[in-house]
Amino acid sequence: MVAELSVSLWRGGMDGCYETYSVPQRESQTVLDVVTFVQRYIDPTLSYRFACRVGVCGSCAMTVNGRPRWTCRTHVAKVAGSGRLEIGPLENLPVIKDLTTDMQPFFEKWQKAQGVFAPTKTRHEEIEQIRPDSPARRLADAAIECINCGVCYAACDTVRWNQDYFGPAALTRAWTLVNDERDAGGSARLQAVAGAGGCHSCHSHQSCHELCPQALNPTAAIAGLKRRTTAAYLKGEIKA
Amino acid sequence: MNVRLYVWQRATAAVMAPLVLIHIAVIFYATRKGMTAADILSRTQGSIVWASYYGLFVAAASIHAAIGVRNVLTEWSPLNNRHAGRLALLFGLLLAALGTRAVFAVVLS
């Protein structure tokens, strides 16, 4: 006899509720497998988002038993010891339907933090040589593997309390670019992250660091931005 | 919180750290010696050193606490940044007034 999982899924929009389904438990089953089973065999109207299924695209993050996780790389055996799963949409983002959130505020804050690379050269110039072991490049590399899954944003207490706060992912991206020797964003980017909603709003609770599926440390990146912006402010390079 | 408020809050914290330690040491000294209020006042009255010490303490605490209260209000109350800032400023001024009154009472009276 196949063991069954009791799976509660969020259904509806912001004012929805959890509905419980019974899903057969399988070996090496991921949380995304469970959600997919419900949609394919129980209720095809279930909405959720995924693409690669192998932890690269960052689109399948959901709240699993109270914690934000990337569902394609989260094994049921690790999070559902009691045979129960509660899967909801990511927190701190508007719910479109069921398990699908609107990521627009997340990416708008990327723009506000100037998370876009500003090139210093054109394609017609020679490629700049960057030493991979230089201190600046090591700092830039530390967070280069962010997949924009939104787990840190959903885990962040400050985002929950302060709607203006850019959040860990956007600030980590800014820190990567601040340390990128090829980037021309410079003091304009520091100015962007030094204002209201920027790095100084972070309380260093470190939920982002604890739950980041890529094992990145956004808290350390934000601390770096705090130091860099403070130095720039004291030198008069940026304004409050 | 922007970088200006951040710098002020950290700077006032750095100022207060040694002042708090000295303040606690003075409390221990006064209680261990069994000093009365009259004994303490006889040492503080007319003292520019104690006036400067506690005057600086009051100024740093008023600024530091006001910025902290502003953060609490912006995150935990429905007030917007502007109104939270004004309310926190009033709180800081109140602390400064009460503290300055206490310093005058100990040094001048």
From the spread of the alpha carbons, the general shape of chain A counts as: elongated
Radius of gyration of chain B from CA coordinates? 17 Å
Q: If classified by CATH, what would the architecture of the largest domain in chain A be? A: Orthogonal Bundle
Whole-number radius of gyration of chain A? 20 Å
- In terms of quaternary structure, the protein is heterodimer
Enter the CATH topology name of the largest domain in chain A: Fumarate Reductase Iron-sulfur Protein, Chain B, domain 2
Biggest interface: A-B, 16 and 12 residues
Instruction: Report the top-level CATH class of the largest domain in chain A.
Output: Mainly Alpha
Question: What is the CA–CA distance across the termini of chain B?
Answer: 40 Å
Distance between the termini of chain A: 66 Å
Order of helix and strand elements from N to C terminus of chain A:
EEHEEHEEEHHHHHHHH
What is the total domain count of chain A? 2
> Number of helical segments of chain A?
10
CATH superfamily annotation of the largest domain in chain A = Alpha-helical ferredoxin
Mean pLDDT value of chain B: 94
Q: Give the DSSP E fraction of chain A (strand runs of 2 or more residues).
A: 5-15%
Number of helices of chain B: 4
Largest sheet of chain B: none
Question: How would you describe this structure to a colleague?
Answer:
The complex is a heterodimer of chains A (about 240) and B (about 110). Chain A has about 240 residues and is an alpha+beta fold. Chain A has two domains: about 5-100, Beta-grasp domain (Ubiquitin-like (UB roll), Roll), CATH 3.10.20.30; about 105-235, Orthogonal Bundle (Fumarate Reductase Iron-sulfur Protein, Chain B, domain 2), CATH 1.10.1060. Helices cover about 35% and strands about 15% of the residues of chain A. Chain A has ten helices and seven strands. A five-stranded mixed β-sheet of chain A has the order 2-1-5-3-4. The radius of gyration of chain A is 20 Å and the shape is elongated. Chain A starts with a strand and ends in a 6-residue tail after the last helix. Chain B is mainly alpha-helical and about 110 residues long. Chain B has one domain (about 5-105): Fumarate reductase/succinate dehydrogenase, transmembrane subunit (3 helical TM bundles of succinate and fumarate reductases, Up-down Bundle). In chain B, about 85% of the residues lie in helices and about 0% in strands. Chain B has helices at about 5-30, 35-45, 50-75, 80-105. The N and C termini of chain B lie far apart (about 40 Å). The chains are: A alpha+beta (about 240), B mainly alpha (about 110). Chains A and B meet through helix 10 of A and helix 1 and helix 3 of B.
